[in-house]
Amino acid sequence: MSFTSFLSSLFRSLLAFFLGGLAFILIVMPYGIILDSVFPGSMGSDMIPETLSSQVLLIVINFIGGSIATLVVSLMAPKRINVHAFLFGVFLLFLNLSTLFGSSVSWPLWISIVLLVALPFEIWTGAWLGNYIRVSDQQKSAV
Predict the structure, then answer these.
(1) How far apart are CA 138 and CA 132, in angstroms?
(2) Among the four residues 1, 75, 77, 98, which has the most C-beta atoms within 10 Å?
(3) Which UniProt keywords apply (predicted)?
(4) How many domains does the chain have?
């Protein structure tokens, strides 16, 4: 592997992580707007979902966001898709742990625990979809 090939691969990997993180932020961050439009009046003054249905929808939004973000990482990764997805999962793990132990988010503890339990499934779903799309694209181009 030449040095320029290594730099190209490294740049593409960093770009994959950046775009995956950006996708996660763009999908998950407006959760308050989404929850308030689906369940009016369910958000507290500090943007914490107060009803059970809005809390479950928050978990669903987070799962979809993590899966799509991992899909973006998987599609952008130059090689070793599963390694990139795993490393992105570690990033999401630290993000979830910071919400669990951080003081910035004070939603119920069970939400943070469910988010931690669902994290491997998010990563697996996004990586599986990324692998599936890349393999089907390679088969189409081979024909």
Answers:
(1) 10
(2) 77
(3) Membrane, Transmembrane, Transmembrane helix
(4) 1
DSSP annotation string for the chain? --HHHHHHHHHHHHHHHHHHHHHHHHHHTTHHHHHHHHSTT-B-TTS-B-SHHHHHHHHHHHHHHHHHHHHHHHHH-SS-HHHHHHHHHHHHHHHHHHHHH-SS----HHHHHHHHHHHHHHHHHHHHHHHHHHHHHHHHHH-
CB 44, CB 107: distance < 8 Å = no
**Tens-level pLDDT at each residue, the chain (143 residues):** 687 887 888 898 899 999 999 999 999 888 878 888 888 877 777 777 888 888 898 899 999 999 999 999 999 888 888 888 999 999 989 888 887 777 666 778 888 889 899 999 999 999 999 888 888 877 777 76
| Total number of residues shown for the chain | 143
* Domain span holding position 82: 3-142
Q: Which long-range contacts (CB under 8 A, 24 or more apart) does 47-52 make?
A: 48/105, 48/106, 48/107, 49/107
Residue type, 10: L
